[in-house]
């Protein structure tokens, strides 16, 4: 029987343990038994479970990446770039790796972060993480501070708030994504609503621009797209589980959608051949128009993921109601 939220000590509900790779991870719990896990390796959310203990994020069972490389799954942070071409080659070290360095760095717990609004803390179990430039970051010589708050609310919703500041260095630009691996029953049973009629960049066609024609996104083959200027609420309906993920975003104009399908899965060392059926990436992102920060400026990107029961058969999910 969970405690009542009134007496729940959220601070005590946050514990620090070790990850499978010996790196600190933080466990967040709420009064009803939901939980989330965040690794200091990459600031990566590696687990988000509902009050029944069901895992809501996909993580590959084929974990071959050695830390601090990102484990395939959870919510890796893509910063300061998403696509390799986004940011030109850097002097003295070639180009950044795909999706940038943030997910491959060890973050620290930020004991004294600049305050967020009260409702970003009240009634939530949360942790504040910090990433600052390190000596080996010569390939992105910018004076940044990246603060990430991960929180779990009493209703089980998961929220990630990224605050990236230019600490009085020269202006810099970046692109960003919360690379969110949702766990689904079977990709052929899933559809996305909220991206209809939008333009998208198709990464399978040299990032050429197309317009979405369908009245929902369904999956019959590999999909690797960035939907542009998307609404701030997108729904991912899992018909078999009668479950809908509601993805809300702020400061993140785009939504990257990815499923590798069978052929690409077979070529990936950290994904089992058939695991593509159980995953779908729906990534709140700022990709088409990189963010530029002048000295002292700060950008905030907020993502909230929640799960609602969806007894929908064919009618559309009422996004306006969310
Ligand atoms: O989200 C789309 C994407 O850029 C795909 O092209 C694929 O590369 C995926 O991300 C996974 O990237 P990763 O670097 O995590 O292997």
UniProtKB/TrEMBL annotation:
Keyword Cell membrane: no
Alphabetic keyword roster: Isomerase
Alphabetized GO MF terms: carbohydrate binding; glucose-6-phosphate 1-epimerase activity
Enzyme's top EC category: isomerase
Binding annotation for substrate: 72, 98, 103
Name of the protein in its database record: glucose-6-phosphate 1-epimerase
Keyword Isomerase (UniProt): yes
BP-aspect Gene Ontology terms: carbohydrate metabolic process
SUPFAM superfamilies linked: Galactose mutarotase-like
Family as reported in the entry's similarity comment: Belongs to the glucose-6-phosphate 1-epimerase family.
Substrates-to-products reaction catalysed: alpha-D-glucose 6-phosphate = beta-D-glucose 6-phosphate
Domain of life: Eukaryota
